[in-house]
Each structure stands twice: as structure tokens, then as C-alpha cells.
Amino acid sequence: MSEIIGVDVGGTKIAAGVVDQHGNILKMARKPTDTRTADSVVATILEVIEELGAHDADAIGIGAAGFIEEDRSTVTFAPNVNWRNEPLGQRVEEATGLHTVVENDANAAAWGEFRFGAAREYNSAVVVTVGTGIGGGIILDGKLVRGSRGFAGEIGHINMVEGGIPCGCGLRGCWEVYSSGGALLRAARKIARQDRERSAGMLELAAGDPEAITGLIITEAAQKGCKGANDAFAEIGKWLGQGMADLSALLDPEVFVLAGGVSEAGGVLLRPAREAFLERLTAREYRPEPAVLLASLGNDAGIIGAADLARE
């Protein structure tokens, strides 16, 4: 197979690209996600595929948020697009005549980074996607870990604090509540309310209103040296590093790759996360330290990974 179409299905947009065997995107297409019905989402996917010229591709790979069955075709549950037991792969394959593989979007992005991005020099990797929540993908000995039903990798819901802050999943104390974009906003706004002098850099960008502080403002202020903004990154970095240390004890990867919107802050997040990770790493003096790197493929990782998984 030479050229594969990779599709990344998001809650607000569907992005797709024609990907060659080296992970290069040759052509791109995007459309807003029509989430009115399950059928309307499928229709939009088919429109994007047609725009790319499905007749010139050898197969299709789709990355979608939610639980994907072991048949790599059926979406059991996807809250953002109202899918319940949706035979997505089968429907796309019937409409296009092309072999179609469906994978969880975080797994697809992780595979993209593993094959062609920051983790390409490693054989075992955990990709931690830090955005509104925390997602992830696990590759051990060169193989994507999907679990017995295809539901593995929901690392954002590892319990970190018994009876802690409520999570959107219905439980309390999940990792993503303490180390995601939402956690960063919560920490930064609290710091700004309590110490305006220390948070002057953020407040200047937010017109003096702590509640107007955004993730972009926190990142810009931190990179300019705002102490309050750096305090907020240190807070979520501490929890991020602790979670990675726990995953390291369980999975023993060679590398962790930080992806997602929050990770784009670069060193202001990477430094405290790496420090906390090394402090909590089990038997550190007797083992090689896993690398902690930033993702390199950005928003294209899901498209590239989905396409490559369909190539297998």
C-alpha cells in the first residue's frame, strides 16, 4: 500500500489527509463536524474522504474519540458525536469500497508519534495527551496495547486522590482533574485571585480579570517570566510527573511523549513534569531513566497514525 487516507474525527471538526508510507501528508481536507445525528457525522466523514479522492487511495484509517470494539470497526460509545454501537468502519467501507480500520483517536495519535514522530527511535512508549482532559496511547515492544475489548489507554481516569475533585466521568480524583488544561486554568485563576502582584503578567493580558485568564494567556505569561503563571504550570507538572511515574512502574516504557494543547507550552510544563517524574520514579538508581519528550507531529498525529494503522 502506498497512499492511505487518515481521518481524525473530532467534536468540532473532521480533518483528513492522504498519507504516504513515510508519514508525509500529501493532501488535506477539513469540514465542521455535523453532530445533529449519528448519520450526519458519517456523512461528513464520507464528504471529506471524497474531497481527497478516495478512488486514488488504497485504504482508510479513522481515529475517533470513544470506545472502539476489537473488530476495529464498531464504535461502542462516543459521547461527542452521539454514536452508540455504530458500525462506522463497515459503513465507510461499503460506501467507498476501501478497506477501513477504526481506532481510538488517542491511540491513533500515539501510533503516529511512535512511527514517525518524537518516539520513532524507541520500541516502547507511552504518549500522554494533555488537553481539556488527559488521554493516552500505549505501545509496548512495538505493538499498540488495546486491551481485551479495545478499551485500554484511558489513563486520564487513573485515580490519584481518593475522594478528590469530581471528574466529568462521574468519579472523583482522576488524574486528568489535576493535570489537564482545566486544572491549569483552575490553578492559574486561583493564584491570580490570591496574589495579583505575583500574577501581574497574566492579569495584564487578561485586562485585570482573573476569570478572563485563558490557557494561551497562562502560556504566554509563563514564557515571559510571570511567577504566578509558572506556579500554575509547576502545580499541574507535579501531578503529571507523579502519574507518569506510576505508569512507568506498571509499564516500563523507554519514553513518555507529552502531546496535546497544554504540552505546546514547551519547557514551562516539561521541566516541572520531568522533575516530579524523576522524584517519584521507582528504583531510579537501578534502572535507565525513561526519556520525557514533547510531541513533534502536532495536530497531524491522529491523521498520520490512523492512516498507518490501516496500512498494517
From TrEMBL:
Its EC number is 2.7.1.2. Belongs to the ROK (NagC/XylR) family. One of its GO terms (biological process) is glycolytic process. InterPro entries: ATPase_NBD (IPR043129), ROK (IPR000600), ROK_cs (IPR049874), ROK_glcA (IPR004654). It comes from Trueperella bernardiae. PROSITE patterns: ROK. GO terms for cellular component: cytoplasm. The keyword Transferase applies. One of its GO terms (molecular function) is ATP binding. Pfam families: ROK (PF00480). Keywords: ATP-binding, Kinase, Nucleotide-binding, Transferase. It is an enzyme of class 2 (transferase). This is Glucokinase.
